[in-house]
Amino acid sequence: MPKGLVIIPTYNEVENIAQVIKLTLDLPEQFDILVVDDNSTDGTREILEQMSAENPRIHTIFRSKKLGLGTAYIVGFKYAFKHNFQYVFEMDADLSHDPKDLTRFVSALKEHDFVVGSRYVKGVSVINWPMSRLLLSYFANLYARFVTGVPIKDLTSGFVGYRTEILKKIDLDRIKTDGYGFQIEIKYKLYRQGFRFSEIPIIFIERRSGHSKMSKGIIWQAFWLVWKLGIFGIFSK
Ligand SMILES: Nc1nc2c(ncn2[C@@H]2O[C@H](COP(=O)(O)OP(=O)(O)O)[C@@H](O)[C@H]2O)c(=O)[nH]1
Ligand SMILES: [Mg+2]
After folding, report:
1. Residue nearest atom 25 in ligand 1 by C-alpha distance
2. What separation in Å is there between the alpha carbon of 96 and the centre of ligand 2?
3. Could you tell me which residue ranges the Glycosyltransferase 2-like domain spans (predicted)?
């Protein structure tokens, strides 16, 4: 069975982290998990220290301050290179993504280079978002697709699976975006390199516990990035 690493970034996810790890470990694929924690102050770190000491499939990287989702994933990808995982996955800690969907991701990765868990392939499959947030996300995705020309309906999705080798083909250290911008930029770069993707439907359920860490700054960064990719991306890969 190919080895898969599920990267879970955390910043203050004490109510969610133990459960998301347990649900992921219980899957038949026998995934390893890497949690990249950014100096959580709510007890997340202590739970991780205990769980990783008890189970060799749970790995941790503790960073000294909140350095953002983008670099958390880049650190995780490099960990996957170093430890020879064939597949690597991005998944949120807050249970908005159902770990069970990873099984379908693995099947899709047999035929494709990367797979995007998508809220917008079968209409809209988001639960418990206020209409304002849903509209923002939906139209931001339409806009990003239109301007960048990348035919992925959920470009901002953070539930993604990759064949690890394709991530070695992009210069990760040049990616400076965070949050939604990071999600758009990495998909854009892989698509422009000609890697084959599949977009598969997922149901996204808004977190029940803890708080969203996304900010207006991250949304604006994604907004400008889309133009940068759309205009300058024509000339470069
Ligand atoms: N390591 C790390 N994780 C983060 C950071 N910001 C957010 N996260 C994690 O990224 C995931 C998605 O964040 P969330 O706030 O739920 O974003 P939303 O779903 O778009 O509202 C969660 O697992 C967060 O704990 C960060 O700066 N560093
Ligand atoms: Mg969330």
Report:
1. 10
2. 6
3. 6-170
69-82 and 179-192 helices cross at what angle (nearest 10)? 50
For residues 228 and 188, give the distance between their C-alpha atoms in angstroms, rounded to a whole number. 12
CATH number at residue 153: 3.90.550.10
Between β-strands 204-205 and 160-163, what pairing exists: parallel, antiparallel or unpaired? unpaired
Q: Establish if 237 belongs to a structural domain.
A: no
pLDDT digits (tens, 9 = 90+) for 193-218: 999 999 999 999 999 999 999 899 99
Residue 10: inside a domain: yes
DSSP alpha helices (H): ranges in the chain?
17-25, 44-54, 69-82, 102-109, 131-148, 164-167, 179-192, 216-232
* Ligand 1 centroid – CA 94 distance (Å): 8
pTM of the predicted protein model: 0.97
Is 36 in contact with 61 (CB distance < 8 Å)? yes
Ligand 2 centroid vs 190 CA: distance in angstroms?
A: 24
* Count of structural domains within the chain: 1
What would the pLDDT profile of 44-74 be if each residue is shown by its tens digit? 999 999 999 999 999 999 999 999 999 999 9
Range of the domain at 221: 4-232
